Amino acid sequence: MIDEERPEPPIADGEAATLQGFLDFQRATFDWKCAALDAAGLRATLAPSPMTLGGMLKHLAYVEDRWFSAVLWGQQREPWSTVDWAADPDWDWHSAADDSPEELRALWQESVTHSRKMVDAALAEGGLDQLARAAAWQDGRSPNLRWILCHMIEEYSRHNGHADLIRESIDGRTGE
């Protein structure tokens, strides 16, 4: 990836812009790791894990919607709201093998676009201190938007490490 293609986080902006900038930087890194792969590439695994880049695309689409729609705003969205999570807690990972690369990329992109809108609305309503409308923990506590953004940066950072290894095993592509 050419550095000019990836959005750099602001170096001297406010807290919200900095957090959003780092999240977008991690999203762009992940997008680059999945770019130009066919179905076989998105289904490739690296022993001993069954994790795939296609599974990560669907998982991260779910995580985007879970935190920025379901938790932050209390809104359930398709396809997640109709999944029998009790029957398969890892449905997002498992079902990705049945989806085409185009479907997986579109689902993830749509989730990211929707998440950005949800973040903008929360910033306008209550800023980074805006509490989530749905409890995220069993004891009834809800995080604020600041925590959710930090968590999402961590989520992408962790999966970008996985994506690095899987992508290198597919075609030798390395780098950020």
Automatic annotation (TrEMBL):
Name this protein carries in UniProt: DinB family protein
Species this chain originates from: Amycolatopsis acididurans
